[in-house]
Amino acid sequence: MTDLIHYIALSLLPSWSWLPIAERLRAGDLPAAVFDRLMARHWPDDPHHRSDVYARARAAIDRGQTRRIAPIAWNNPVYPVALTTIADPPPVLWMQGSSAAFDRPAVAIVGARAASAYGLSVAERLAADLAARGLAIVSGLARGVDSAAHRGALSAGGVTLGIMGSGVDVVYPPEHASLARDMQQDGGVVSELVPGTPPLKQFFPMRNRIISGLSRAVVVIEAGEKSGSLITARCALEQGRDVLAVPGNVLSGRNRGAHALLKDGAKIVESADDILEELRMPPAACASTCGEPASLNQDPILACLTPGEPSDLDAIAERSGLTTARLLPRLFELELQGAVARVGGGRFVRV
Protein backbone atom coordinates (compact mmCIF):
# COMPACT_ATOMS: atom_id res chain seq x y z
CA MET A 1 0.00 0.00 0.00
CA THR A 2 2.90 2.36 0.74
CA ASP A 3 4.33 2.05 -2.77
CA LEU A 4 0.84 2.33 -4.27
CA ILE A 5 0.14 5.70 -2.71
CA HIS A 6 3.45 7.03 -4.07
CA TYR A 7 2.63 5.80 -7.58
CA ILE A 8 -0.81 7.44 -7.36
CA ALA A 9 0.79 10.66 -6.12
CA LEU A 10 3.07 10.62 -9.18
CA SER A 11 0.04 10.12 -11.44
CA LEU A 12 -1.53 13.28 -10.01
CA LEU A 13 1.36 15.49 -11.13
CA PRO A 14 1.14 17.59 -14.34
CA SER A 15 1.65 16.00 -17.75
CA TRP A 16 5.06 17.64 -18.26
CA SER A 17 6.37 15.36 -15.52
CA TRP A 18 5.41 12.10 -17.31
CA LEU A 19 8.68 11.67 -19.19
CA PRO A 20 11.03 12.32 -16.24
CA ILE A 21 8.87 10.09 -14.03
CA ALA A 22 9.10 7.22 -16.52
CA GLU A 23 12.84 7.70 -16.95
CA ARG A 24 13.51 7.51 -13.20
CA LEU A 25 11.18 4.54 -12.63
CA ARG A 26 12.86 2.66 -15.50
CA ALA A 27 16.21 3.45 -13.89
CA GLY A 28 15.01 1.63 -10.77
CA ASP A 29 14.28 4.61 -8.51
CA LEU A 30 11.58 4.11 -5.91
CA PRO A 31 8.38 6.08 -6.55
CA ALA A 32 8.73 7.93 -3.23
CA ALA A 33 12.21 9.12 -4.21
CA VAL A 34 10.99 10.24 -7.63
CA PHE A 35 8.14 12.17 -6.02
CA ASP A 36 10.44 13.81 -3.47
CA ARG A 37 12.86 14.91 -6.20
CA LEU A 38 10.08 16.51 -8.24
CA MET A 39 8.67 18.27 -5.18
CA ALA A 40 12.06 19.69 -4.25
CA ARG A 41 12.78 20.86 -7.78
CA HIS A 42 9.44 22.34 -8.83
CA TRP A 43 7.53 23.21 -5.64
CA PRO A 44 10.26 24.14 -3.12
CA ASP A 45 8.29 27.09 -1.74
CA ASP A 46 4.90 25.41 -1.48
CA PRO A 47 4.86 23.38 1.74
CA HIS A 48 1.21 22.42 1.33
CA HIS A 49 1.46 20.95 -2.16
CA ARG A 50 2.97 17.64 -1.02
CA SER A 51 0.30 17.04 1.62
CA ASP A 52 -2.46 18.04 -0.81
CA VAL A 53 -1.28 15.52 -3.41
CA TYR A 54 -1.04 12.71 -0.88
CA ALA A 55 -4.50 13.57 0.47
CA ARG A 56 -5.89 13.26 -3.07
CA ALA A 57 -4.08 9.94 -3.50
CA ARG A 58 -5.57 8.54 -0.28
CA ALA A 59 -9.03 9.76 -1.32
CA ALA A 60 -8.58 7.99 -4.68
CA ILE A 61 -7.72 4.72 -2.95
CA ASP A 62 -10.77 5.01 -0.69
CA ARG A 63 -13.10 5.81 -3.59
CA GLY A 64 -11.63 2.96 -5.64
CA GLN A 65 -12.22 0.47 -2.83
CA THR A 66 -15.79 1.66 -2.35
CA ARG A 67 -16.56 1.33 -6.07
CA ARG A 68 -14.53 -1.83 -6.71
CA ILE A 69 -12.05 -0.09 -8.97
CA ALA A 70 -8.64 -1.77 -8.93
CA PRO A 71 -5.49 0.36 -9.06
CA ILE A 72 -2.73 -1.31 -11.10
CA ALA A 73 0.60 0.33 -10.33
CA TRP A 74 3.72 0.22 -12.51
CA ASN A 75 5.33 -2.44 -10.27
CA ASN A 76 2.27 -4.71 -10.31
CA PRO A 77 2.91 -7.92 -12.31
CA VAL A 78 -0.43 -7.47 -14.12
CA TYR A 79 0.46 -3.98 -15.37
CA PRO A 80 0.32 -4.36 -19.19
CA VAL A 81 3.81 -4.94 -20.54
CA ALA A 82 2.97 -3.26 -23.85
CA LEU A 83 2.49 0.04 -22.01
CA THR A 84 5.90 -0.12 -20.37
CA THR A 85 7.48 0.27 -23.82
CA ILE A 86 6.02 3.72 -24.55
CA ALA A 87 7.83 6.91 -23.61
CA ASP A 88 5.33 8.12 -21.00
CA PRO A 89 3.35 5.23 -19.49
CA PRO A 90 0.95 6.05 -16.64
CA PRO A 91 2.37 5.27 -13.17
CA VAL A 92 -1.04 3.77 -12.31
CA LEU A 93 -4.00 2.40 -14.25
CA TRP A 94 -7.46 2.16 -12.70
CA MET A 95 -9.65 -0.68 -13.90
CA GLN A 96 -13.08 -2.19 -13.53
CA GLY A 97 -13.06 -5.62 -15.11
CA SER A 98 -10.60 -8.45 -15.68
CA SER A 99 -6.89 -7.67 -15.83
CA ALA A 100 -6.44 -10.97 -17.71
CA ALA A 101 -7.53 -8.99 -20.78
CA PHE A 102 -4.07 -7.40 -20.82
CA ASP A 103 -2.55 -10.81 -21.58
CA ARG A 104 -4.09 -10.98 -25.06
CA PRO A 105 -2.58 -9.38 -28.14
CA ALA A 106 -4.70 -6.31 -28.85
CA VAL A 107 -5.80 -4.24 -31.83
CA ALA A 108 -7.24 -0.74 -31.48
CA ILE A 109 -10.18 0.30 -33.66
CA VAL A 110 -10.87 4.05 -33.67
CA GLY A 111 -12.74 6.51 -35.85
CA ALA A 112 -15.46 9.10 -36.22
CA ARG A 113 -18.00 9.80 -33.50
CA ALA A 114 -20.51 10.88 -36.15
CA ALA A 115 -19.86 7.78 -38.23
CA SER A 116 -21.95 6.70 -41.20
CA ALA A 117 -23.87 3.45 -41.24
CA TYR A 118 -21.03 2.05 -43.37
CA GLY A 119 -18.38 3.04 -40.81
CA LEU A 120 -20.34 1.55 -37.93
CA SER A 121 -20.92 -1.68 -39.82
CA VAL A 122 -17.24 -2.05 -40.76
CA ALA A 123 -16.09 -1.34 -37.18
CA GLU A 124 -18.49 -3.89 -35.72
CA ARG A 125 -17.57 -6.57 -38.28
CA LEU A 126 -13.81 -6.15 -37.94
CA ALA A 127 -14.02 -6.16 -34.14
CA ALA A 128 -16.20 -9.28 -34.11
CA ASP A 129 -13.90 -11.15 -36.49
CA LEU A 130 -10.74 -10.23 -34.57
CA ALA A 131 -12.29 -10.96 -31.18
CA ALA A 132 -13.48 -14.35 -32.41
CA ARG A 133 -9.85 -15.18 -33.20
CA GLY A 134 -8.66 -14.36 -29.71
CA LEU A 135 -7.53 -10.74 -29.95
CA ALA A 136 -8.62 -8.04 -27.53
CA ILE A 137 -10.28 -4.97 -29.07
CA VAL A 138 -9.21 -1.61 -27.64
CA SER A 139 -11.08 1.65 -28.19
CA GLY A 140 -12.22 4.77 -26.38
CA LEU A 141 -15.88 4.03 -25.49
CA ALA A 142 -16.93 7.11 -27.46
CA ARG A 143 -19.97 7.41 -29.68
CA GLY A 144 -19.71 6.11 -33.23
CA VAL A 145 -16.89 3.83 -34.32
CA ASP A 146 -15.57 3.23 -30.79
CA SER A 147 -18.82 1.89 -29.37
CA ALA A 148 -19.47 -0.12 -32.54
CA ALA A 149 -16.09 -1.81 -32.11
CA HIS A 150 -16.79 -2.63 -28.46
CA ARG A 151 -20.20 -4.06 -29.33
CA GLY A 152 -18.76 -6.07 -32.19
CA ALA A 153 -16.25 -7.72 -29.87
CA LEU A 154 -18.96 -8.53 -27.34
CA SER A 155 -21.22 -9.97 -30.05
CA ALA A 156 -18.50 -12.53 -30.81
CA GLY A 157 -18.09 -13.42 -27.13
CA GLY A 158 -14.72 -11.69 -27.15
CA VAL A 159 -12.69 -9.33 -24.99
CA THR A 160 -12.70 -5.56 -25.30
CA LEU A 161 -11.11 -2.71 -23.34
CA GLY A 162 -12.40 0.86 -23.17
CA ILE A 163 -9.81 3.54 -22.39
CA MET A 164 -11.55 6.49 -20.83
CA GLY A 165 -10.96 10.23 -20.65
CA SER A 166 -12.46 10.32 -17.17
CA GLY A 167 -12.43 8.22 -14.04
CA VAL A 168 -13.77 4.74 -14.80
CA ASP A 169 -16.73 5.41 -12.50
CA VAL A 170 -17.75 8.46 -14.54
CA VAL A 171 -18.83 6.88 -17.81
CA TYR A 172 -18.91 9.28 -20.75
CA PRO A 173 -21.07 9.48 -22.73
CA PRO A 174 -23.60 8.51 -20.05
CA GLU A 175 -25.66 6.36 -22.42
CA HIS A 176 -22.74 3.92 -22.62
CA ALA A 177 -23.01 2.93 -18.95
CA SER A 178 -24.65 -0.41 -19.78
CA LEU A 179 -22.06 -1.08 -22.51
CA ALA A 180 -19.28 -0.40 -20.01
CA ARG A 181 -20.82 -2.91 -17.60
CA ASP A 182 -21.10 -5.56 -20.31
CA MET A 183 -17.42 -5.09 -21.17
CA GLN A 184 -16.28 -5.87 -17.62
CA GLN A 185 -16.97 -9.60 -17.60
CA ASP A 186 -13.85 -10.56 -19.57
CA GLY A 187 -12.46 -7.14 -20.53
CA GLY A 188 -13.06 -3.85 -18.83
CA VAL A 189 -12.85 -0.08 -18.65
CA VAL A 190 -9.50 1.52 -17.90
CA SER A 191 -8.22 5.00 -17.08
CA GLU A 192 -5.05 6.66 -15.88
CA LEU A 193 -7.25 9.22 -14.09
CA VAL A 194 -8.24 8.67 -10.48
CA PRO A 195 -11.83 7.63 -9.74
CA GLY A 196 -14.27 10.51 -9.78
CA THR A 197 -12.39 12.54 -12.41
CA PRO A 198 -14.88 14.29 -14.73
CA PRO A 199 -14.61 13.94 -18.54
CA LEU A 200 -12.80 17.19 -19.32
CA LYS A 201 -11.81 18.05 -22.89
CA GLN A 202 -8.04 17.89 -22.29
CA PHE A 203 -8.18 14.30 -21.03
CA PHE A 204 -9.30 12.72 -24.29
CA PRO A 205 -6.17 13.43 -26.38
CA MET A 206 -4.09 12.26 -23.39
CA ARG A 207 -5.71 8.84 -23.30
CA ASN A 208 -4.99 8.18 -26.99
CA ARG A 209 -1.37 7.22 -26.25
CA ILE A 210 -2.75 4.47 -23.97
CA ILE A 211 -5.14 3.17 -26.65
CA SER A 212 -2.24 2.80 -29.09
CA GLY A 213 0.26 1.75 -26.44
CA LEU A 214 -1.83 -1.25 -25.39
CA SER A 215 -2.24 -2.36 -29.00
CA ARG A 216 -0.11 -4.04 -31.63
CA ALA A 217 -1.88 -2.11 -34.37
CA VAL A 218 -4.33 0.78 -34.75
CA VAL A 219 -7.10 0.58 -37.37
CA VAL A 220 -8.64 3.92 -38.37
CA ILE A 221 -12.19 4.06 -39.76
CA GLU A 222 -13.78 7.27 -41.09
CA ALA A 223 -11.42 9.87 -39.68
CA GLY A 224 -11.75 13.46 -40.85
CA GLU A 225 -8.82 15.82 -41.37
CA LYS A 226 -8.92 17.00 -37.75
CA SER A 227 -10.12 13.78 -36.16
CA GLY A 228 -8.86 12.74 -32.74
CA SER A 229 -8.29 9.32 -34.28
CA LEU A 230 -5.32 10.81 -36.14
CA ILE A 231 -3.77 11.63 -32.76
CA THR A 232 -4.04 7.95 -31.87
CA ALA A 233 -2.49 7.02 -35.22
CA ARG A 234 0.38 9.45 -34.63
CA CYS A 235 0.95 7.99 -31.16
CA ALA A 236 0.99 4.51 -32.68
CA LEU A 237 3.66 5.48 -35.20
CA GLU A 238 5.79 7.07 -32.48
CA GLN A 239 5.43 3.91 -30.40
CA GLY A 240 6.39 1.58 -33.25
CA ARG A 241 2.90 0.15 -33.70
CA ASP A 242 1.34 -0.63 -37.07
CA VAL A 243 -1.22 1.80 -38.50
CA LEU A 244 -3.94 0.61 -40.87
CA ALA A 245 -6.97 2.33 -42.38
CA VAL A 246 -10.29 1.42 -43.98
CA PRO A 247 -10.99 3.21 -47.28
CA GLY A 248 -14.29 5.03 -47.56
CA ASN A 249 -16.43 7.34 -49.63
CA VAL A 250 -14.28 10.00 -51.33
CA LEU A 251 -17.24 12.34 -51.84
CA SER A 252 -18.44 12.79 -48.26
CA GLY A 253 -15.24 14.30 -46.83
CA ARG A 254 -15.65 12.35 -43.62
CA ASN A 255 -12.74 10.01 -44.47
CA ARG A 256 -10.04 12.42 -45.60
CA GLY A 257 -7.90 11.74 -42.55
CA ALA A 258 -7.92 7.98 -43.09
CA HIS A 259 -7.21 8.43 -46.79
CA ALA A 260 -4.24 10.64 -45.91
CA LEU A 261 -2.90 7.78 -43.80
CA LEU A 262 -3.28 5.44 -46.76
CA LYS A 263 -1.38 7.88 -48.99
CA ASP A 264 1.40 7.92 -46.39
CA GLY A 265 1.73 4.14 -46.50
CA ALA A 266 -0.83 2.79 -44.04
CA LYS A 267 -2.08 -0.66 -45.04
CA ILE A 268 -5.57 -0.87 -46.55
CA VAL A 269 -8.00 -2.92 -44.47
CA GLU A 270 -10.88 -4.71 -46.12
CA SER A 271 -11.17 -7.63 -43.71
CA ALA A 272 -9.77 -8.97 -40.45
CA ASP A 273 -7.35 -11.12 -42.45
CA ASP A 274 -5.61 -7.94 -43.68
CA ILE A 275 -4.92 -6.97 -40.08
CA LEU A 276 -3.71 -10.43 -39.09
CA GLU A 277 -1.43 -10.51 -42.12
CA GLU A 278 0.13 -7.18 -41.15
CA LEU A 279 0.69 -8.51 -37.63
CA ARG A 280 2.24 -11.71 -39.06
CA MET A 281 -0.39 -13.80 -37.33
CA PRO A 282 -1.97 -16.81 -39.05
CA PRO A 283 -5.62 -16.20 -40.03
CA ALA A 284 -6.62 -19.39 -38.22
CA ALA A 285 -4.93 -18.28 -34.99
CA CYS A 286 -6.34 -20.09 -32.01
CA ALA A 287 -8.04 -18.09 -29.29
CA SER A 288 -5.70 -19.26 -26.54
CA THR A 289 -2.33 -18.46 -28.10
CA CYS A 290 -3.09 -16.49 -31.29
CA GLY A 291 -0.40 -18.44 -33.09
CA GLU A 292 1.35 -21.74 -33.46
CA PRO A 293 3.36 -22.80 -30.41
CA ALA A 294 7.08 -22.54 -30.88
CA SER A 295 9.57 -25.27 -30.09
CA LEU A 296 10.53 -24.12 -26.63
CA ASN A 297 13.84 -25.95 -26.59
CA GLN A 298 15.04 -23.97 -29.60
CA ASP A 299 13.33 -20.64 -28.99
CA PRO A 300 15.89 -17.81 -29.41
CA ILE A 301 14.08 -15.52 -26.98
CA LEU A 302 14.17 -18.12 -24.21
CA ALA A 303 17.88 -18.49 -24.88
CA CYS A 304 18.22 -14.82 -23.90
CA LEU A 305 16.64 -15.42 -20.48
CA THR A 306 18.15 -17.02 -17.40
CA PRO A 307 15.80 -18.94 -15.06
CA GLY A 308 15.16 -16.95 -11.89
CA GLU A 309 16.77 -13.73 -13.19
CA PRO A 310 14.24 -11.10 -14.36
CA SER A 311 15.14 -9.08 -17.46
CA ASP A 312 13.50 -5.95 -18.81
CA LEU A 313 12.42 -5.49 -22.41
CA ASP A 314 15.45 -3.38 -23.37
CA ALA A 315 17.84 -6.08 -22.19
CA ILE A 316 15.94 -8.86 -23.98
CA ALA A 317 15.73 -6.77 -27.16
CA GLU A 318 19.48 -6.13 -27.09
CA ARG A 319 20.29 -9.82 -26.63
CA SER A 320 17.80 -11.07 -29.21
CA GLY A 321 18.29 -8.37 -31.81
CA LEU A 322 14.52 -7.79 -32.04
CA THR A 323 12.71 -4.50 -31.67
CA THR A 324 10.31 -4.25 -28.73
CA ALA A 325 7.39 -4.07 -31.20
CA ARG A 326 8.34 -7.51 -32.54
CA LEU A 327 9.53 -8.89 -29.22
CA LEU A 328 6.33 -8.29 -27.22
CA PRO A 329 4.06 -10.63 -29.22
CA ARG A 330 6.54 -13.50 -28.83
CA LEU A 331 6.86 -12.88 -25.09
CA PHE A 332 3.06 -12.93 -24.79
CA GLU A 333 2.95 -16.28 -26.58
CA LEU A 334 5.70 -17.71 -24.37
CA GLU A 335 3.87 -16.49 -21.29
CA LEU A 336 0.67 -18.21 -22.42
CA GLN A 337 2.66 -21.39 -22.95
CA GLY A 338 4.02 -21.15 -19.40
CA ALA A 339 7.63 -20.71 -20.52
CA VAL A 340 8.06 -17.19 -19.10
CA ALA A 341 6.38 -15.16 -16.37
CA ARG A 342 5.95 -11.46 -15.83
CA VAL A 343 7.25 -9.74 -12.72
CA GLY A 344 6.98 -6.15 -11.54
CA GLY A 345 8.17 -3.23 -13.62
CA GLY A 346 7.51 -4.84 -17.00
CA ARG A 347 10.22 -7.50 -16.61
CA PHE A 348 10.15 -11.16 -17.66
CA VAL A 349 11.73 -14.24 -16.16
CA ARG A 350 12.19 -17.69 -17.63
CA VAL A 351 10.20 -20.33 -15.76
Q: Can you walk through the features of this model?
A:
This protein is α/β, with parallel strands linked by helices and 351 residues long. It has three domains: 2-97, no CATH class; 99-278, 3-Layer(aba) Sandwich (Rossmann fold); 296-350, Winged helix-like DNA-binding domain superfamily/Winged helix DNA-binding domain (Arc Repressor Mutant, subunit A, Orthogonal Bundle), CATH 1.10.10.10. The chain contains 14 helices and twelve strands. The chain has helices at residues 2-11, 18-26, 31-42, 47-66, 81-84, 117-132, 145-155, 177-183, 203-213, 228-238, 256-263, 272-278, 313-320, 324-336; strands spanning 70-73, 92-97, 106-111, 136-139, 159-163, 188-191, 217-221, 242-246, 267-268, 311-312, 340-343, 347-350. It has a nine-stranded mixed β-sheet, sandwiched between helices. A three-stranded antiparallel β-sheet has the order 10-12-11. The longest helix is centred in the first third of the chain and has 20 residues, at 47-66. The radius of gyration is 20 Å and the shape is globular. The relative contact order is 0.12.
Question: Secondary-structure map with pairings?
Answer:
Blueprint: H1 2-11, H2 18-26, H3 31-42, H4 47-66, E1 70-73, H5 81-84, E2 92-97, E3 106-111, H6 117-132, E4 136-139, H7 145-155, E5 159-163, H8 177-183, E6 188-191, H9 203-213, E7 217-221, H10 228-238, E8 242-246, H11 256-263, E9 267-268, H12 272-278, E10 311-312, H13 313-320, H14 324-336, E11 340-343, E12 347-350
Parallel strand pairs: 3-4, 3-7, 4-5, 5-6, 7-8, 8-9
Antiparallel strand pairs: 1-2, 2-6, 10-12, 11-12
